């Protein structure tokens, strides 16, 4: 690949903050576009009413659990590619990239099959009443997503490998393409060509009637949101892999790189398994939290569906905060990985400190906006019967949790520093503690034992955001996490 075609950012020499921002900026934009996927689904599904939104909220934790388990292994791809590039081991980069793709793809296929079969039972565990309309809608949505998990993972792997290389612009372009496809498909597949609010807003009722006569398509409902996501991800993954095999993005794969080799797979598992456990236990924690919200909601005056629906929408809005912070943390992983690979531990530490300061300042401003305009923000995503109750729950969540957004962001940056060094076991420990030591017990105490109801769950979330960053910061200041650099032989793997 020629010099002019290399989009990677140099983060190991010269100024640190500017290239870190240049690297992280596209990741943050990609994360915001990821939210675009989620919010578009929530917006159009919200046109179907409370049952549909509740079904989406109950389905998502299960999907997230599966994605998180296999997705954690993509962290290994980022760390290995980043540290090899920092150390100048160019011959190893293609190999570890191909091995990551092959291994994670195998995991994705397995979880897709298992998840599809167990969906009805698993949804019952998170609060969906078997036989109810909400349960039926959630099953349709989740099973469709599981059928396309392999395609979804193809895109996530592409992002992870390019991040390690230092190119975050190409994944941004691909994400924008996917979001555009999803935004077009969502209203069409969800609502079809009968009383579609999109056609009404555009003054195209005549065209809508013609299309209905030609196709008879009246929409897939909630399942249409899943179908739109799968189709757009499949197109993105296909383009991403074409670029990887052509060498157009710096990494140049061959079919031989996809043949799994025990030594490399063991390294991927050693680095990726803790990240996978962290992400999957986080997803499981979110599932348990959703179940707790459903239990608490059953005793609330507004009812379970309203409480779960409000929690779902507030969670999607909070992802506007969490995902950009996570995006900046992903950029921190690359900066730390490449600098430790080039034996610059002090520079790696400075990168983490700068990231914490930047994200904290930004999220203080976001908190003010979220709390000030909470009612208007939540109201955008729900209409029809029960909308007022759902909105009230979402507003209550944002008012309680909003002031802790800066702590949530700082914790993600610290975690990114730990992962970039290869200290994924350490990051796993803090990630598990955040949910299972601080969040869920506190949420249960405030909501059940202290009798605060749904608001108690929100206070448990706020408490965990603060407690987690305090504990992680103490460990960061010890400095021992930089000792856990991944060591690799420099030889190219044998055929």
TrEMBL record:
Entry's localization field: Cell membrane
Entry's transmembrane regions: 20-40, 52-81, 101-123, 144-166, 172-193, 241-260, 356-382, 394-414, 426-446, 458-477
A Pfam family matched in the record: MatE
InterPro entries registered for this protein in UniProt: MATE_fam, MdtK-like, Membrane_Transporter-Flippase
Domain of life: Archaea
Keyword field: Cell membrane, Membrane, Transmembrane, Transmembrane helix, Transport
A Gene Ontology cellular-component term: plasma membrane
Main localisation: membrane
Coiled coil: none
Membrane topology: Multi-pass membrane protein
CDD domains: MATE_like_12
Keyword presence, Cell membrane: yes
NCBIfam families: matE
Protein name (record): MATE family efflux transporter
Organism this protein belongs to: Halomarina rubra
């Amino acid at each position: 690949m020629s010099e002019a075609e290399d989009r990677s950012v140099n983060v190991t020499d010269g100024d640190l903050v500017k290239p870190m921002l240049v690297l992280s900026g596209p990741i943050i934009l990609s994360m915001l576009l990821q939210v675009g996927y989620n919010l578009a689904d929530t917006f159009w599904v919200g046109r179907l009413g409370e049952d549909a939104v509740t079904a989406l909220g109950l389905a998502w934790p299960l999907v997230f659990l599966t994605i998180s388990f296999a997705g954690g292994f993509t962290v290994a791809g980022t760390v290995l590619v980043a540290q090899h590039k920092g150390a100048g081991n160019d011959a190893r980069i293609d190999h570890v990239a191909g091995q990551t793709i092959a291994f994670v793809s195998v995991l994705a296929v397995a979880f897709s099959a298992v998840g599809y079969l167990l969906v009805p039972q698993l949804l019952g565990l998170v609060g969906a009443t078997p036989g109810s309309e909400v349960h039926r809608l959630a099953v349709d949505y989740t099973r469709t997503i599981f059928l396309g998990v392999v395609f979804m993972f193809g895109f996530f792997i592409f992002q992870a490998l390019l991040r390690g290389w230092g190119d975050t612009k190409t994944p941004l372009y691909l994400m924008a393409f996917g979001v555009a496809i999803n935004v077009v498909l969502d209203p069409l597949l969800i609502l079809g060509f009968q009383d579609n609010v999109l056609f009404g807003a555009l003054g195209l009722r005549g065209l809508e009637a013609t299309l209905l006569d030609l196709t008879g398509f009246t929409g897939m409902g909630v399942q249409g949101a899943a179908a739109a996501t799968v189709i757009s991800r499949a197109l993105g993954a296909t383009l991403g892999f074409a670029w990887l095999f052509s060498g157009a993005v710096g990494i140049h794969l061959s079919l031989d790189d996809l043949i799994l080799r025990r030594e490399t797979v063991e390294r991927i598992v050693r680095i990726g398994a803790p990240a996978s456990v962290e992400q999957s236990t986080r997803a499981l924690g979110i599932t348990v939290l959703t179940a707790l919200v459903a239990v608490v909601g059953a005793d609330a005056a507004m009812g379970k569906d309203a409480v779960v629906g409000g929690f779902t929408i507030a969670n999607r809005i909070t992802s506007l905060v969490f995902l950009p912070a996570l995006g900046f943390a992903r950029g921190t992983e690359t900066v730390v990985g490449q600098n430790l690979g080039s034996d610059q531990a002090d520079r790696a530490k400075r990168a983490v400190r700068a990231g914490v300061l930047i994200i904290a300042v930004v999220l203080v401003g976001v908190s003010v906006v979220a709390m000030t305009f909470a009612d208007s923000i939540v109201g955008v995503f729900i209409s029809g019967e029960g909308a007022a109750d759902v909105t009230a729950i979402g507003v209550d969540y944002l008012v309680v949790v909003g002031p802790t957004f800066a702590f949530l962001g700082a914790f993600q940056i610290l975690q990114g520093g730990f992962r970039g060094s290869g200290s994924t076991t350490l990051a796993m420990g803090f990630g598990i503690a955040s949910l299972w030591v601080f969040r869920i017990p506190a949420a249960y105490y405030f909501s059940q034992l202290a009798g605060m109801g749904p608001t108690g769950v929100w206070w448990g979330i706020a408490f965990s955001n603060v407690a987690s960053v305090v504990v992680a910061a103490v460990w960061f200041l010890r400095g021992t996490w930089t000792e856990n650099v991944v060591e690799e032989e420099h030889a190219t793997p044998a055929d």
